[in-house]
């Protein structure tokens, strides 16, 4: 089972690189980065999330244009992703030298995370890309302390009957993890997170792109 899961993750990582190259092919880098930064700000505003200057934060699974592009220079960001070196080679939008205030870590979410504990953790559309969902959530929790804030987003299944089918068949190759919203709530709560808000940010035929705002170790 672990071998199958690992193979599925490696395929997803390959497809992720290819997706970014194709997606950005006709987009001017500076225009894309400006639009993406504005998108991040709109998302934070929609969720009522406050950015706090000098707060120590983690951008987990940051990709080439994660929320670090908006937060750098305001919050103190550690940004991690296993494909960062590939993105720096493949994509004109990403260079670590653009963000000298940001600490980058080239690693998976399942590995011990450097720089913690953090006062806030951002994990946008990354937790369903991992090979080991439970271990990744464990590692995020390990770098939290009482009062740490979490903003987590993921595509989740709208229809419970489709979830087991997508787990067995390659219906969504970019996302090795297939879970419904109840599984996310239970996984967070069992690790000591108090979920304050669950909000659908975008609805599609099969998935809801959903956000959770939570606080660790309170009440």
From TrEMBL:
<dbReference type="GO" id="GO:0032259">
    <property type="term" value="P:methylation"/>
</dbReference>
<protein>
    <submittedName>
        <fullName>Methyltransferase domain-containing protein</fullName>
    </submittedName>
</protein>
<dbReference type="InterPro" id="IPR029063">
    <property type="entry name" value="SAM-dependent_MTases_sf"/>
</dbReference>
<keyword id="KW-0808">Transferase</keyword>
<dbReference type="GO" id="GO:0008168">
    <property type="term" value="F:methyltransferase activity"/>
</dbReference>
<keyword id="KW-0489">Methyltransferase</keyword>
<dbReference type="Pfam" id="PF13489">
    <property type="entry name" value="Methyltransf_23"/>
</dbReference>
């Amino acid at each position: 089972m672990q071998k199958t899961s690992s193979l599925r993750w490696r395929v997803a990582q390959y497809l992720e690189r290819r997706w970014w190259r194709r997606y950005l092919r006709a987009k001017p880098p500076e225009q894309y980065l400006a639009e993406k930064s504005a998108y991040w700000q709109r998302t934070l505003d929609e969720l009522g999330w406050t950015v706090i200057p000098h707060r120590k934060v983690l951008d987990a699974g940051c990709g080439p244009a994660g929320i670090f592009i908006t937060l750098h220079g305001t919050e103190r960001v550690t940004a991690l992703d296993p494909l960062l070196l590939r993105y720096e080679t493949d994509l004109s939008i990403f260079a670590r030298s653009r963000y000298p205030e940001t600490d980058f870590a080239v690693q998976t979410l399942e590995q011990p995370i450097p720089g913690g504990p953090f006062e806030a953790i951002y994990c946008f559309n990354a937790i369903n890309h991992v090979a080991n969902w439970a271990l990744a959530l464990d590692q995020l929790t390990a770098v939290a302390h009482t009062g740490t804030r979490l903003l987590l987003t993921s595509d989740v299944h709208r229809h419970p009957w489709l979830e087991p089918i997508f787990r067995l068949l390659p219906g969504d190759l970019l996302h090795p993890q297939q879970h419904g919203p109840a599984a996310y709530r239970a996984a967070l709560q069992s690790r000591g997170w108090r979920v304050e808000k669950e909000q659908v940010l975008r609805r599609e035929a099969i998935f809801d792109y959903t956000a959770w705002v939570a606080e660790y170790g309170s009440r």
